[in-house]
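Supplementary Methods. Inverse-folding protocol.

Structures were first reduced to a discrete structure-token string of length 236. This string, shown here, constituted the complete conditioning input.
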């Protein structure tokens, strides 16, 4: 049986940790409906909203399943879900023990292409900011960046000197995001990208495409092309 939480007020993270423990030791068995938010709020001495936040975190991690009017049930087969964070390319390069250098290649405000208007939901914004840049490690080309920024959502982007500021770093520091869509695949190198990597046009390159949202508004779409032979690793 559970010994119960220690006395004293709790934050949502502590409640979530206690819930994980109960699931792990089978105090709350797979498929079991756990106590209601109201009951847990009384048990932990917190507001119901605090319990709700803890249970949302558990649901996002795959520990529980939440159904309206049916309560919260321990997952029959808990699934480990990978968490995603947007890395700084500078950090990726430096973690390899290389010296990082950023170089803008081009920056222009252009009519919004149809593909970008769709990706960023920019139907009411006729212009978009397009930036290309090369990221290097110890002088070697590491990643080519083609970036589109929605100036209707981030108007201050028009005043940034992108010769100095990396869009990857500036956006992460200045613009909070609520949702990210990512796709990874192989793309044939264009002449522009092939020139950066000193490879033949058409060479298959690892490509990562990422769309970032702030609420219902698309902030930025970026396509990162990596040097031939690049690998990505993940631990879960």
């Amino acid at each position: 049986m559970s010994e119960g939480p220690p006395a004293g007020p709790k934050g949502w993270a502590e409640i979530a940790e206690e819930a994980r423990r109960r699931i792990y030791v089978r105090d709350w068995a797979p498929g079991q409906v756990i106590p209601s938010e109201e009951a847990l709020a009384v048990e932990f001495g917190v507001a119901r909203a605090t319990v709700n936040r803890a249970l949302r975190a558990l649901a996002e991690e795959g520990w529980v399943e939440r159904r309206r009017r049916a309560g919260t049930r321990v997952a029959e087969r808990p699934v480990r879900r990978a968490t995603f964070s947007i890395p700084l390319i500078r950090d990726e390069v430096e973690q390899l023990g290389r010296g990082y250098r950023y170089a803008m290649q081009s920056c222009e405000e252009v009519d919004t292409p149809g593909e970008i208007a769709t990706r960023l939901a920019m139907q009411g914004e006729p212009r978009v900011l397009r930036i290309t840049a090369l990221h290097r490690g110890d002088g070697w080309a590491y990643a080519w960046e083609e970036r589109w920024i929605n100036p209707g959502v981030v108007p201050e982007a028009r005043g940034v000197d992108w010769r100095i500021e990396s869009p990857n770093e500036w956006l992460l520091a200045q613009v909070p995001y609520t949702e990210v869509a990512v796709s990874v695949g192989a793309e044939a190198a264009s002449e522009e990208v092939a020139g950066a990597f000193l490879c033949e046009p058409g060479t298959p390159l690892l490509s990562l495409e990422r769309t970032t949202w702030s609420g219902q508004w698309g902030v930025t779409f970026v396509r990162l092309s990596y040097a031939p032979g690049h690998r990505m690793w993940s631990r879960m």
